[in-house]
UniProtKB/TrEMBL annotation, chain A:
The keyword Lyase is assigned to this record: yes
Positions of post-translational O-(phosphoribosyl dephospho-coenzyme A)serine modification: 14
Protein's name according to its UniProt entry: Citrate lyase acyl carrier protein
InterPro entries reported for this sequence: CitD, Mal_deCO2ase/Cit_lyase_ACP
Main location: cytoplasm
Gene: citD
GO CC annotation, single: cytoplasm
Annotated localization: Cytoplasm
Amino acid sequence: MTPKFKAQAGTFESSDIMVLIEPVSEEAGRQIDISSTVMLQFEDDIKNTINQVLDDLDIQNVHLIAKDKGALTPTIKARVEAAVKRSLGIQEGTM
Amino acid sequence: MKNALGVEIPEYIEGLGELKPFQGVWESIIGDEIPSTNIVRTLKAKKAHTSKLCGDLKDAIKKCNPFDGMTVTFHHHLRGGDGVLMQTIEILDEMGIKDITLASSSLTSAHDGLVPYVEKGMITRIFSSGIRGRLGEIISMGKLKHPAIIHSHGGRVRDILTGRIKPDLSVLAASAADEEGNATGAHGPSAFGSMGYADIDARYSKNVIIVTDNLVDYPCVPGSIRQHFVDHVVKVDSIGDATKIASGTTRITKSPMDLRIARIAATVIEHSGLFKDGMSFQVGAGGASLAVAKFLREDMKRKDIKGSFMIGGVTSYGVDMLNEGLFQAIFDVQSFDAAVSTSVLNNPQHIEITCDQYANPNNCGAMTNKLDVVVLGALEVDVDFNVNVITGSSGEIRGASGGHSDTASGANLSVIVCPSFRGRLPIVKDRVHTIVTPGESVDVIVTERGVCVNPSKPNLAAALKKAGVKVVDINDLKKEVDAMTGVPAEKQLGDKVVALVEYRDGTIIDVIHNVENLS
């Protein structure tokens, strides 16, 4: 699937992560930009977590910007999933 | 050579001399002293009725005949508002003085201006109990010519008495002083309370300048610093930013995490066997540590406990507890907010003490040795109960040793309060980046996920379990936290020693290596 809208999820609070999604053309591939207060300690981990969620949701073409303030893995997963679903226009409930 | 904690300590450091490795908390005491050289007081004489007043600070400094390689000392009672230290360094630089040893009782955010003077080699050595901000970063990157020495508050007094720090010039700010140099921080527009850290400088420095923005009619009372130690007196327009020197009252944190940790810590104290009439107590001034005082206050009232004394690091919160009769006295080496100054001045049970009396390991009556309970913070702790309060998660210098190791060694119960992780970084490590306080003197680590009791205190662990406190093995806690956060990748530190952590007895407990590319 390919994101259609700009979307975001998360906050800039400590222990949270802000995830921004920008639609890109088909075949553009994944571009993931990460900044984090714990880059030094968890860069690979954050990247892998984001890629895993994108794999699960079958998103191949996307520009994802993540600004992390030390979110735990479940938080990262939830924020990425919410942002992606918003960008696909398939969110349910009050979002 | 290795010290008792397995840290490789250089035997000799160019510019600082021979080093002794840490052997254990009390190992240095032989008989009734820590054997060491003992300096004598500088003899000074003045003819009758000569004036000590100088036109300005530069004039006063010139009269002290500054020279290359000299040691200049300060106190840090003006905290983040200090304007005197930077002014002095600027004047000395203008005069072309170089190779300076800077020995301030601590360094704060007000001292980032030191960076260019360190980078150009005007300041080549630093002794301090704390180094923060940009200054900490550039020292971590190896920009200071000789390794910085981090001492404790009590250790600094010992450093001066044994000649490790040899003050040639001490520029001591006061919020009120008279023409002879009787000086205090207890009143005046820039009042900051106790002057406890400055006493040792005044007594042993070759040249003492009192700087004040508030020259009062003779005599200045109380005389926290006395005239017979003071060479020169300078009246200046400002000693710093009064709003950052001391303001208002200290508030208790509203952070649910800190409050939860503090509540557990107060329960630990209540069931430690020390919670009874005559208890003595010290808390830090921030976060969870101060919040323990809030719960202890409630618990003391509920159980009608009357304590003996508080020491510190005094906040208005402590003053309130004194005024409520929960404690008999406060011994005050450093006051943290404006409300405290009034109490120091007016309440005879609020006693200003020198840092020598507070925590010097080489005297026969340090207050820290009479302490029942102390509550302290931590940047990191490890499975051996060692505590780091000086370096951050990348190994960079960004904190203060302060009275941490002094109080932990003396107290019957030393309680560390800290969250189990901060912003995904686990606080419990296999080994802390830098040991400031050895696990030997740490009894309990309180986190929101459970209380770890030092295995050397099995009776305490049993008592806490019986009282329903969640006692966990520190190794299990570490595993639990690591499973949540993931195990952080550790950045490799460089080979260069950029700072030494001196234990209160003068031995070296740890070394700090350089960090490359701090952003």
